[in-house]
Amino acid sequence: MTMRPHRASRWLYPRPEGLYCEPGSFFIDPVRPADKSVITHGHADHARSGHGAVLATPETIAIMKIRYGEGCAGAFQETAYGEETTVGGVRVRLAPAGHILGSAQVVLDYEGTRVVISGDYKRAADPTCTPFEVVPCDVFVTEATFALPVFRHEPAGDEARRLVDSIRQQPQRTHLLGVYGLGKCQRMIALIRAAGYDAPIHLHGALVALTEFYASRGFDFGACHPIATDTSTNRRDFAGSLVMCPPSAIADRWSRRFEDPVTAFASGWMRVRGRALQRGVELPLIVSDHADWPELIATIEETGAAEVWVTHGREDALVHQLGLMGIPARALTLVGFEDEGD
Ligand SMILES: [Zn+2]
Ligand SMILES: [Zn+2]
């Protein structure tokens, strides 16, 4: 299907730095240092250091400062959900994306057209962030991380319960759970607590600062103990307990201190059996902070968008499906975004 580009593409279009809003002269999630930026959320492929000015939610700005330092941008403009500002004649508002704490969709109104850039998002419940808000729009810009019909995430609470059951059934083994440090870690802790596990949870050092930040925002994670960086700890100290670490730590030297561990990994990619086997994951948990295939389709329909632009992920499959549904769609070729393995 060939199509004429929507008129919004005259003022909002990709440049090498990222998606650019010309009248406002700002980029959304630029991958290179930019004078003016709007940042959707704190994941490293979206929020980078070195921009002149950053407009984002207070939580996203706090996360950027934790990761990159106080001076990681020239200036910060904290913008709460629903608050509206005008930049070069463009009305800019942030709406909750339900992805991680502080994650936002960017709502742009200009010359009678509304474009919503969703960033990364999900629709499933998450006790650690504000739920996604459907914002009716003319053009909806969506991610496509899990845009294949095979991707259907499991109810996250059920997956957490499987982990807790496994810990109870094998009290002599250490359970080692791989999680991404921002968002997934804190969501899994909350779900594991909700599943009735109240023993201390041991955290790899790389997970501590952001978990403490969430706790400072009022989330109650129970007892979470950082693991000492030295290797002096006795292997048996962790028998029967739950240890959480970044995915990369599961297979490296660090994990050798644990006795006969059960390795678990919480990720949408765990739907693909080969990926679990390849990583040596004994207990795959299919939990993602991205929309799965049914959520992507439902969300696009609910926005009522006349046209859809697809960013990073499996653009082809989603563009094809929307074509079948009679919704004009095209892939924006934006570089620099990763799967986040999420
Ligand atoms: Zn993300
Ligand atoms: Zn992303």
From the structure above, extract its key features.
342 residues; alpha/beta; Metallo-beta-lactamase, Chain A; Rossmann fold; seven-stranded mixed beta sheet; six-stranded mixed beta sheet; 8 helices; 25% strand; binds zinc ion
Name the ligand types. zinc ion
* Number of DSSP-assigned strands: 19
How large, in whole angstroms, is the Cα Rg? 21 Å
Name of the CATH homologous superfamily of the largest domain: Ribonuclease Z/Hydroxyacylglutathione hydrolase-like
Enumerate the spans where pLDDT stays under 50 for 5 or more consecutive residues: none
Shape: globular
CATH architecture field of the largest domain: 4-Layer Sandwich
Spatial sequence of strands, sheet with the most strands:
7-8-9-10-11-18-19
- Report the top-level CATH class of the largest domain: Alpha Beta
Helix content: 10-25%
Overall structural domain count: 2
Rounded to the nearest angstrom, the distance between the terminal CA atoms is 32 Å
What would your notes on this structure say?
The protein has 342 residues and is an alpha/beta fold. The chain has 2 domains: 7-150 and 290-331, Metallo-beta-lactamase, Chain A (4-Layer Sandwich); 156-285, Rossmann fold. It has helices at 58-68, 156-169, 184-194, 208-216, 247-251, 273-278, 293-303, 315-324; strands at residues 12-15, 18-21, 26-28, 36-38, 51-56, 73-78, 84-87, 90-96, 104-110, 113-117, 139-144, 175-178, 201-203, 224-226, 242-245, 262-266, 283-285, 307-313, 329-331. Strands 7-8-9-10-11-18-19 form a 7-stranded mixed β-sheet, covered by helices on one side. The longest helix has 14 residues, at 156-169. It is globular. One zinc ion (ZN) binds next to loops.
